[in-house]
Structures are given as structure tokens and as C-alpha cells.
Design brief:
By secondary structure, the protein is α/β, with parallel strands linked by helices. It folds into 2 domains: 6-238, Rossmann fold, CATH 3.40.50; 246-422, Four-carbon acid sugar kinase, nucleotide binding domain (Molybdenum Cofactor Biosythetic Enzyme, Chain A), CATH 3.40.980.20. The chain has 14 helices and 18 strands. A 15-stranded mixed sheet has the order 9-10-5-11-4-1-3-2-16-17-18-15-12-14-13, with helices on both faces. Helix 2 packs parallel to helix 3 (97-108), helix 6 (180-192) crosses helix 7 (205-214) and helix 12 (329-349) crosses helix 13 (360-369). The mean pLDDT is 93.
Length: 423
């Protein structure tokens, strides 16, 4: 681990692979750890991404987990820390982005950091401090209906300031467009004005690359995954195909999905319209005590030899709210996650060694159920979503190729394309 230069803390599992994917594409050798490792990783890498499941838990617990990750990364010699959150800035008025960022700043003695979820490759851009998803403001993108972190205000300065005790301001596009020197000059000005955190505009990858050199000496960076494309060059690294090489893939194929995003709904529909074998699971039947996982595995058993199968709980926002109204928001989500995770483990035990998981919370539950401790990051399927290779308790000899897809990521044909890319 002596060559480790960048230590990353991600607030969910799909976000961790999203970040790792961008680092690999920029030339870094990356391992993703599931939770904080108990000892040194047995790997010669440039960056480690510690994946937590801290996005929607209580702020105090999110802070505790993030600080534990920071202490481990510091012990491994990381020269810079990167706190990664979603490109849709998923949070509530209480956090967890602001509280975790400030706790890390306190622990590191850091007087200034930036914050930007910009990821232009996935159409997440920040202009004048406002977050856009595609051509619309965040609060018009469907994120206003998110079941756990509804985003109703696209002004990131305002959103982050509500979560922070430190002063939050903006480095706007006019500054970013002038390059690294102008960004550094603006940061110095903000620091003199008592500002500690700055939202930074970015509408293209060129903006992120201009940002990179300006962050070279910043101990802590907080961002979505986009900023990662400009950091490896600060450590003398350049893109290389060797960084994304994985063992050869084999075994059967499956998709499990718990995401209710608009993108995942389209992906489920596309898979079905192409003739894919798909099974929808009903949360109300789970709540009634039916062993839905056993039913799904019995359904899949005769089909997985013929091609990829899909098991999903994905639904439209109205249907999700109806279920939440009957069961409660937290219980409805946790119940479905546990069921899908049990299905994922059962599929792997039955020979599925190429698995796509859709949804951040779902991915966290599945990775834990599969007993995965760390993952090697491989080639990109779509922006923000790579294939990974891992050792799993459910497949101890064969290993497992797994892709963890954030709900909002991927083209409509993602579930089909993923297996083509791996082949």
C-alpha cells in the first residue's frame, strides 16, 4: 500500500464504483473496499475507495463511519482525501453531505474545501450554483419524488448552507472558464472573506480538467465522481488500458433491481420489450409474510441457463408512495432491500457469476449479503458504471463479476448492453 496516493470515502456502494470507474479511466489502479477494512489491503494500488452505506442514515452515525474510514485511509498513507456523494446531491436539510464534510474538515484541520456534484458525462452540470439533470433543474428531473432524499431546491449554495455551520459560497463558471490560476485566486479571495466551502460550477469535462490542478494541494476534496477525472494527473498518472483489466468472465447472468428512478424504470421496460425474462416482486406480499425470495429463485431456476433474467421491485413514484403509506418509508425500503439481497445471493449460489444490481441502497444490501469485502474495478459499461470483480462467500471459487448501477445512471438498454460489454 506504499504507493497509495488518493483515499476516497463514498456514501453509498454504487457511488463508490462510479468514482472508482472515473479514476480507473484516468489511469489509476483502484480497489474498492466494502466498509472500512480491518487491516491493510493486500493490493498495490494508487487509490482506495471505501464504500459506506451512509447516505441516508442518521448524520451522527454517518459522521462516525466517515471518520473511521478517514483514519484507516490516513494510516495507509493517503496523501489526499476525497469525500464522494451523488451527482444529484442526494441529502435532506439535516445532511448528510454538510455534516460529514465539516467533520472531516475538523479532523484534518482543513480550513477550506470545494463541493461540486458535476458529472457532465451523465448530464449533471452546475451553473451559477444551480444543479441541472440533463436540460432541466434538479427539482424538475424526477428527483423531487425520490422516496428517501427528495430534492426540491436546485440551488446548491442554499442546500449546503442549510446543512453547514461554516460559510458556503460559489466559484462560478466565469472563473472556472479562465483556468486553474483563476480558480485558485477565487479560493484565496473566499478564504479571506471567511468562506470555508465553495460550490464550483462545471458544465463540461474541460471545466473539471481545469479544476484538477487547482485542487492539487487541497487536503480534502468533496464532490460527485466527475472531479475525479482531473486528479490522477496531479500524481503523474495518465490513462492506461491496464488499469481496467479483469479476470475472464464466466457463469450465468442476472439482473436485480430495487431502484425506482425514471432511468431504471425505462431500463426495466427495455429489457422486457426485448423479450427478456423478468419477474416483478410485490412489497405487500413480502409484508404479508410470503417467502417472495424463494418464489423468485424457483421462477429463475429453469431460465438462467437460457440467458439473463431480471428480478425487480422497480415501480412508478405513485406506486412507491402507496406502499410507503401502508408500511412506512423506512420499513418498505428495508424490506424490499432484504428480499432482493436474498435473491441475489441465491442466484449466485445457483451459478450466476455475472450480476448487475440497480439502485444504491439495493447495491449496498446485495454486496453485504454476498459477503464481498473488496472489488477490483474494471471496464466501463456506461458513464459512472464499471464492471467489477470480487470474491464472494456465495461463489468462493469462481469469483463474481458484478456491476453496481446507481438508479439514475445508464442508457435505456443498459441491462442488455452490460453483458455484451463483459463478453
Amino acid at each position: 500500500m506504499s504507493k497509495l496516493v488518493l483515499g476516497c470515502i463514498a456514501d453509498d456502494f454504487t457511488g463508490a464504483t462510479d468514482l472508482a470507474n472515473n479514476l480507473v479511466r484516468a489511469g489509476m489502479r483502484v480497489v474498492q473496499a466494502i466498509g472500512v477494512p480491518e487491516g491493510p489491503l493486500d493490493a498495490d494500488v494508487d487509490a482506495v475507495v471505501v464504500a459506506l452505506k451512509s447516505r441516508t442514515i442518521a448524520p451522527a452515525e454517518a459522521i462516525a463511519q466517515s471518520l473511521e474510514a478517514w483514519r484507516w485511509l490516513q494510516s495507509q498513507g493517503a496523501k489526499q482525501i476525497y469525500f464522494k456523494y451523488c451527482s444529484t446531491f442526494d441529502s435532506t436539510p439535516q445532511g448528510n453531505i454538510g455534516p460529514v464534510a465539516e467533520a472531516l474538515m475538523d479532523a484534518m484541520g482543513c480550513d477550506f474545501t470545494i463541493a461540486t456534484p458535476a458529472f457532465p458525462d451523465n448530464k449533471r452540470t452546475v451553473f451559477k450554483g444551480y444543479l441541472f439533470a440533463g436540460d432541466v433543474l434538479l427539482n424538475e428531473s424526477g428527483m423531487q419524488n425520490h422516496p428517501l432524499t427528495p430534492m426540491t431546491d436546485p440551488n446548491l449554495v442554499r442546500v449546503l448552507q442549510a446543512q453547514c455551520t461554516r460559510k458556503v459560497e460559489l466559484v462560478d463558471y466565469a472563473v472556472v472558464a479562465r483556468g486553474a490560476a483563476a480558480i485558485e485566486e477565487r479560493i484565496a479571495q473566499l478564504k479571506a472573506e471567511g468562506v470555508s466551502i465553495a460550490i464550483v460550477d462545471a458544465v463540461s469535462n474541460d471545466d473539471l480538467l481545469r479544476m484538477g490542478p487547482a485542487l492539487a494541494k487541497m487536503p480534502l476534496v468533496t464532490a460527485g465522481s466527475g472531479v475525479a477525472i482531473g486528479l490522477p494527473a496531479n500524481f503523474g498518472l495518465a490513462p492506461s488500458s491496464q488499469a481496467s483489466e479483469l479476470p475472464r468472465a464466466g457463469g450465468k447472468s442476472a439482473v436485480v433491481s430495487g431502484s425506482c428512478s425514471l432511468a431504471t424504470n425505462r431500463q426495466v421496460l427495455d429489457f422486457i420489450q426485448r423479450g427478456g425474462a423478468a419477474l416483478a416482486i410485490d412489497p405487500l406480499r413480502i409484508a404479508a409474510g410470503v417467502d417472495v425470495a424463494a418464489e423468485a429463485l424457483a421462477w429463475a431456476a429453469p431460465l438462467i441457463d437460457k440467458g439473463p433474467v431480471l428480478v425487480y421491485s422497480t415501480a412508478e413514484a405513485g406506486a412507491v408512495k402507496s406502499v410507503q403509506g401502508r408500511l412506512g418509508v423506512e420499513e418498505a425500503g428495508a424490506m424490499v432491500e432484504r428480499t432482493i439481497a436474498a435473491i441475489a445471493r441465491g442466484l449466485v449460489e445457483r451459478g450466476v457469476h455475472r450480476l448487475v444490481v440497480a439502485g444504491g441502497e439495493t447495491s449496498g444490501a446485495c454486496v453485504q449479503a454476498l459477503g464481498i469485502a473488496q472489488m477490483q474495478i474494471g471496464p466501463q459499461i456506461d458513464p459512472g458504471v464499471p464492471w467489477c470483480h470480487a470474491r464472494s462467500e456465495a461463489a468462493p471459487e469462481a469469483g463474481l463479476h458484478i456491476a453496481l448501477k446507481s438508479g439514475n445512471f445508464g442508457s435505456d438498454d443498459f441491462f442488455t448492453k452490460a453483458f455484451t460489454v463483459l463478453a
